[in-house]
Amino acid sequence: MLDVQGLRVEFRTRDGVARAVNGVSYQVHPGETLAVLGESGSGKSVTAQAVMGILDTPPGKVTGGRVLFHGRDLLTLPEDERRRLRGARMAMVFQDALSALNPVMTVGDQLAEMFTVHRGASRRDARARAVELMDRVRIPAARERARDYPHQFSGGMRQRIMIAMAIALEPELLIADEPTTALDVTVQAQVMDLLAELRRDLGTALVLITHDLGVVAEVADRIAVMYAGRIVETAPVHALYERPAHPYTRGLLDSVPRLDRRDGELYAIQGMPPSLTRVPPGCAFHPRCPRAREVCRTEEPPSHPVADGRASACHFWKETLDDLR
Ligand code: SF4
Ligand code: MG
């Protein structure tokens, strides 16, 4: 359904050109959940914005690649066609609902507008469907609350409203960018449960962008791990947890607290992610990698097929895979 091929995005900054997305490829199949995992600044949000066609341009610019949606390249589609696709067939949920919603319009009117504008519904019908949607995302007293403005809702409820907006037209693809990061832990779990449930009921494919491995384990079918503007590993969730094929993934997994580790020692990947204006040559991870050798400093590792649809961009993916700890 979605086939991103060799996507490149650059930003002009005061420090020079930042290669925020540096040849990213991934596929999303109908109904599946792909988690895009990475630290902040790894390029995961920018990739999503380029896919949705909502990149801030300038300073951002797509400099290469293709974004095929059912075989059509979105990057060459006229803006009005792209706008029609957004909302109707692909939609996005952001971290910060307050800035994504219109502050001077009631949430009922905002939801109803999806149906009047995109579906030609009458105002009365659209209002009724807006209330149904609010019900569906479990906003208590939906009929009354439809008359409230975004700032009158809690963070968790606002996030539900944004999810309602996103699913209003039953899109085939939903991209959720850190949808629960701004919420506290219990509310996070509720919102993730809601997303999983809607995805099941509607058959929507979900691209879930997150830095949180815990969230990934619960909802994703597959994971793409990003580092410094590249995807370093893709794998089905269970395979990746059991046997990562990239040292960066290994490091991420080892830095999650585990109940079965009695030593209580928590590993942390040494160093910091690089600035995207100064990505190290060769393998971008080499200054932080415990496995790095000479070749890693000079040769950029290609994406090696591992098995079962897995891939790793590491020269020593085999050794990493066989390192069973
Ligand atoms: Fe580490 Fe080398 Fe693999 Fe990069 S290519 S992750 S530096 S071992
Ligand atoms: Mg982000």
TrEMBL record:
Residues 4-253 form the ABC transporter domain. PROSITE patterns: ABC_TRANSPORTER_1, ABC_TRANSPORTER_2. It is a peripheral membrane protein. It is found in: Cell membrane. Keywords: ATP-binding, Cell membrane, Membrane, Nucleotide-binding, Transport. One of its GO terms (molecular function) is ATP binding. Signal peptide: none annotated. InterPro entries: AAA+_ATPase (IPR003593), ABC_Ni/Peptide_Import (IPR050388), ABC_transporter-like_ATP-bd (IPR003439), ABC_transporter-like_CS (IPR017871), Oligopep_ABC_C (IPR013563), P-loop_NTPase (IPR027417). Pfam families: ABC_tran, oligo_HPY. SUPFAM superfamilies: P-loop containing nucleoside triphosphate hydrolases. Gene3D superfamilies: P-loop containing nucleotide triphosphate hydrolases. Belongs to the ABC transporter superfamily. This is ABC transporter ATP-binding protein. The lineage of its organism: Bacteria, Bacillati, Actinomycetota, Actinomycetes, Kitasatosporales.
